[in-house]
Recover the amino acids of this structure.
């Protein structure tokens, strides 16, 4: 059974542990701007919304990549960027309707969530269980993905 | 069932692999006229600056990718299609039968009607072969004139400038990337390029190309002194490859006409990619977009329909992203706005940042960005879902940079959880 990140914004306190854990795991720096998960703050409502790639089935990024630099990890189902193959053309960053694959100007390549190979650090780091790694069926992600794929 | 695909670019390759996924036993033949394994034109600029070897441009990287999937790759050129007989003629003299046919022959650069344009040493940048020729003549100190600062021109510009060449760009229109950027953004890109040492001449035409003295060419302009050049690169627009369809009865205008199921006017014949006039999501009209995301979307949909599914095209969003010597820009959909609509704009010329949003009622229909790299894809998301922005529209008009918040607040599943809507 594939697992997925379940995000429950109502539980998020905005502590940004997930961003720090992500940037440390993937970029070896404690720097939220290098994180693949972002927490958005709604000042007016005093709410926080963690947000990252849903590993959607359409895989718009993978479909459009001109050089086959994005592949599916058969174990986790994650769409992963192979950094050595990516040429940094950025066409995936405009193709992804969720905005969850981003250009990293220091490497000249793109970065996105790869579920840390099956042990997502953000979920481990979250003190309030706003981010959990659960069976994909439970996450309601299907609805969210379907919505972004819409167009009618 | 025998599927035949003409053209081994992104549209053809995505169609072939999709057909295989949907039908394990069908015959699939992919015919391409270029000598290399299927490769990506988009990767050529990175090949030019030697960031990647030739193999880095290949569309699929694993060994024997096509053979493994029983996709029969044929190197040949299709010279004509006979829809009544379900047959093709090939340059090699052979004929081939098909049950379903996909035309994915892409496009080619147009050569502007300028005296002297046919000389050796004047290149387009369209094929790997062009790439090799340009790579051989560019380098530090080489004097290069680039004709055309459209989308493709600007992509090549980046590669040529990186090679250390002494580069002059000549563009007929009054700004750079005129079909992707408004005057503000197009001129900011121009200023940026000038700041990086590239000479940019807008509102200028090349009138003739003559033999030079000291340098290979002398480029005569409609104003000012002629330019010396060792190499001339021409990027003045593209046209669909439809010539071989003449006499086939398959209807064409600027490209092959297709319907929402990617079908042409001939039974069992489909078209996809740069060669097809597909539906534009924003306008509802049919047009040739000639961009990578549209080519792959078309390829996927055409394959589904060829395999017997009823997969209707909702339309492709015209969109581009460009990196001009480090300045990243993008445009989406109706970036130029509409008569009925209104817009929001944020400009910071000193930092080369720009954001322009175009609305119809409270729906985002187009956008232009400069200097934005984070979450830029949500602009597509907002346009494609036609999500109603409600009170977020006014917030965006006050501060367009809040697009990500607007997206999260207005996309239902998330906002159900958060109570933000
Ligand atoms: C330098 C460069 C940079 C680009 N950068 C971008 C970018 O950043 N973003 C973007 O969205 N787009 C970009 N593009 C455009 C993008 O590459 C095209 O939209 C895309 O290649 C279209 O795919 P296609 O499969 O329709 O056609 P093509 O890639 O053109 O493939 C068609 C193939 O069919 C072959 N063929 C033609 N006629 C026949 C025949 N009669 N018989 C057999 N074979 C035939 C052709 O030789 C070709 O190999 C760029 C293009 C170039 C040249
Ligand atoms: S930026 Fe890299 S991963 Fe994204 S489409 Fe281009 S080559 Fe592929």
């Amino acid at each position: 059974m594939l697992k997925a990140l379940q995000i429950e914004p109502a539980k998020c306190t905005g502590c940004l542990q997930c961003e720090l854990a992500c940037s440390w795991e993937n970029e070896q720096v404690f720097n939220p701007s290098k994180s693949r998960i972002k927490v958005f703050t709604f000042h007016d409502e005093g709410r926080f919304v963690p947000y990252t790639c849903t590993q959607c089935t359409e895989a718009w990024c993978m479909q459009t990549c001109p050089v086959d630099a994005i592949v599916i990890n058969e174990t986790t189902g994650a769409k992963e960027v192979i950094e050595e193959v990516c040429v940094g053309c950025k066409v995936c960053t405009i193709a992804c309707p969720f905005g969850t694959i981003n250009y990293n100007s220091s490497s000249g390549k793109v970065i996105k969530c790869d579920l840390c190979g099956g042990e997502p650090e953000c979920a481990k780091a979250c003190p309030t269980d706003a981010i959990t790694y659960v069976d994909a069926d439970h996450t309601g992600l299907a609805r969210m993905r379907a919505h972004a794929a819409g167009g009618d | 069932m025998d599927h035949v695909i003409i053209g081994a670019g992104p549209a053809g390759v995505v169609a072939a692999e999709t057909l295989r996924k949907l039908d394990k036993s069908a015959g699939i033949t992919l015919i391409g006229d270029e000598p290399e394994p299927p490769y990506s034109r988009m990767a050529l600029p990175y090949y030019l600056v030697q960031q990647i070897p030739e193999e880095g441009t290949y569309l699929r990287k694993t060994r024997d990718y096509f053979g493994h999937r029983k996709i029969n790759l044929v190197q040949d050129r299709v010279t004509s299609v006979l829809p009544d007989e379900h047959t093709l003629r090939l340059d090699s003299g052979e004929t081939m039968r098909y049950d379903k046919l996909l035309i994915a022959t892409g496009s080619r650069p147009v050569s502007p009607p300028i005296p002297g344009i046919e000389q050796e040493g004047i290149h387009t940048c369209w094929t790997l072969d062009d790439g090799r020729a340009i790579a051989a003549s560019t380098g530090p100190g080489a004097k290069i004139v680039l004709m055309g600062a459209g989308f493709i021109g600007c992509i090549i510009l980046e590669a040529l400038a990186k090679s250390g060449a002494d580069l002059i760009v000549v563009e007929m229109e009054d700004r750079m990337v005129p079909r992707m950027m408004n005057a503000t953004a197009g001129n900011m890109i121009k200023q940026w390029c000038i700041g990086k040492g590239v000479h940019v001449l807008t509102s200028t035409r090349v009138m003739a190309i003559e033999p030079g003295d000291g340098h290979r060419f002398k480029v005569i302009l409609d104003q000012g002194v002629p330019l010396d050049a060792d190499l001339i690169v021409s990027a003045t627009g593209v046209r669909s490859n439809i010539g071989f369809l003449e006499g086939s009865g398959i209807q064409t205008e600027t490209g092959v006409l297709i319907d929402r199921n990617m079908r042409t006017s001939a039974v069992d014949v489909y078209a996809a990619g740069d060669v097809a006039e597909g539906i534009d999501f924003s306008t509802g009209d049919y047009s040739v977009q000639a961009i990578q995301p549209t080519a792959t979307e078309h390829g996927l949909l055409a394959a589904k329909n060829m395999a017997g599914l009823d997969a209707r095209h909702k339309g492709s969003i015209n969109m581009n992203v460009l990196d001009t010597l480090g300045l990243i820009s993008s445009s989406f959909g109706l970036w130029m706005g509409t008569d009925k609509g209104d817009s929001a704009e944020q400009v910071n010329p000193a930092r080369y940042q720009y954001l322009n949003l175009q609305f119809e009622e409270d729906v985002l229909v187009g956008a232009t960005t400069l200097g934005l790299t984070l979450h830029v894809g949500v602009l597509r998301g907002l346009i494609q879902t036609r999500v109603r922005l409600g009170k977020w529209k006014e917030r965006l008009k006050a501060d367009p940079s809040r697009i990500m918040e607007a997206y999260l607040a207005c996309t239902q599943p998330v906002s159900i959880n958060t109570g933000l809507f």
User: Anything to note?
Assistant: The radius of gyration of chain A is 15 Å. The domain at 1-52+114-141 of chain A is CATH 3.30.70.20 (Alpha-Beta Plaits). Helices of chain A lie at 17-27, 60-64, 91-95, 121-125, 141-149. Chain A touches chain B at residues 7-10, 38, 40, 42, 45, 47, 49, 51, 60, 63-64, 66-68, 85, 87-91, 93-103, 105, 140, 143-144, 147-148, 150-152 (CB under 8 Å).
